[in-house]
Structure formats: structure tokens, C-alpha cells
Amino acid sequence: SQQGEEDPQALSIQEGENATMNCSYKTSINNLQWYRQNSGRGLVHLILIRSNEREKHSGRLRVTLDTSKKSSSLLITASRAADTASYFCATRINSGGSNYKLTFGKGTLLTVNP
Amino acid sequence: GAGVSQTPSNKVTEKGKYVELRCDPISGHTALYWYRQSLGQGPEFLIYFQGTGAADDSGLPNDRFFAVRPEGSVSTLKIQRTERGDSAVYLCASSLAGSGYNEQFFGPGTRLTVL
Q1: What is the mean pLDDT of residues A33-54?
Q2: pLDDT digit string, tens, across residues A64-103
């Protein structure tokens, strides 16, 4: 079963614009991760945010986490055509025996038009 | 260094046949995972190995699915009596250890098509 739900399902923007994707989840988590997937490079890890963190940056990526609302957002600034891909959030649940398992959402398909 | 590799990249088979999918994890990674991704969905967990043993196989859909990792490195996912509903991309991932903060590195996947 899938714990996370990304929103929107699809997003189309112009190069240079910012893209924001949201993720909601259901159970208490250990951490939340964002992945990118395109046909050329497969599934690539972008950023991990721990349950006790509220915001994290990595280059043009900014991730926020609100554990009270069980939601996260991924912001990509100054988007490029090469950012075109599907983006997934994945959670690791807060259970010592099972915190290795990633549970993915359905993903947001981002298209960045040149 | 080399990443996670999976073979074959594509597999087409007929309903009822047996298939094996292979995963070569990153050298030194003790944890190995199999996921399945259907069209338009995110990956879904199948099984987790810590070393040679399957620590959690709760994601395997039924007893037609089986996976092994006899020497704690290469893993093989085996599917018996394939059905059309088994068609999906099968992803393998590995990490240094199984704990929650270790990044999982994914292979390119094997696209299985059951006719």
C-alpha cells in the first residue's frame, strides 16, 4: 500500500519558474525523502529530511516538513528543462523493526518547458 | 564506483512461464531491497535482505514470488507461473545497512512484460 500522496499529479511550467510539489502521508515517520525518476537515470535520491527537522536545502531544492499536518513540500527554484521528471516522496515509518522500508507516493510528473 | 546493476533490462515472457531477475548491489552494501513499480504508480516494497537472510518478505504478493541472496551480495528475484498482472518494472536497491538514515541506491530496473 502507498502511504504518501503527491499533489499535484502533474505540473507543467516554463524554464526559470519555481515548481512546488506537496506530499501527504498517514502514519508517524522516521524520515521523509524525495526522489526523482526519469527514463535516463532511473530513481535518484534527492534529499532526506528527518522527523525533527522542519526545513532543508540542497542547491536549488528546498524541502519542508510539517509533522503535525503530516505533509511535506519540495520546491525547485529556477527550474531547467533537465528537471523534467517524476518526483516521489518516500517515507520511513517510525517503527524500530521496520524503519528500513521506504513507502512511496504515486508521484508528481513535472514538465519544464524550454 | 559502480552503482546497482540489474539484468536483464527488459524481459518479455509468456503467461505461465518462470522468470529470474538479477540484482548486483553496490559492493559492501549489506542491505538489499526489491521494489515493484506498476505504470503510473510509485515503487512498492517487496522484500528486504540483511546479509543473506530475508529480514522482511511481507511485500511479496503471493507464493509465486521468491527471492534469494545466497552469498550476501547478488540477489535473484524469482517469479513462477507468471501472470499478466506481474507486468511491471522491478527495482532493486542497496544500502550500507538497513537502518532508517542510510540512503538506498536504486538500480535502473528490469521491465517485465507478461504476454
Answers
A1: 89
A2: 999 999 999 999 999 999 999 999 999 987 665 556 788 9
Cross-chain Cβ contact B106/A101 below 8 Å? no
SS3 helix, strand, coil % of chain B, rounded to 5? Answer: 5, 50, 50
Cβ atoms within 10 Å of A62's Cβ, excluding its own: 17
C-beta of residue B35 within 8 angstroms of C-beta of residue B91? yes
CA B2 to chain centre: 18
Nearest neighbour of B108 by CB, restricted to A2, A42, A105: A42
The answer to whether B102 and B93 are in contact (CB under 8 A) is no
Query: For residue A43, which of A77, A1, A90 has the smallest C-alpha distance?
Result: A90
Cα B115 to Cα B11, B12, B20, B63, B83, distances in angstroms: 11, 7, 16, 21, 8
- Per CB-CB distance under 8 Å, the chain A contacts of B31 are 100
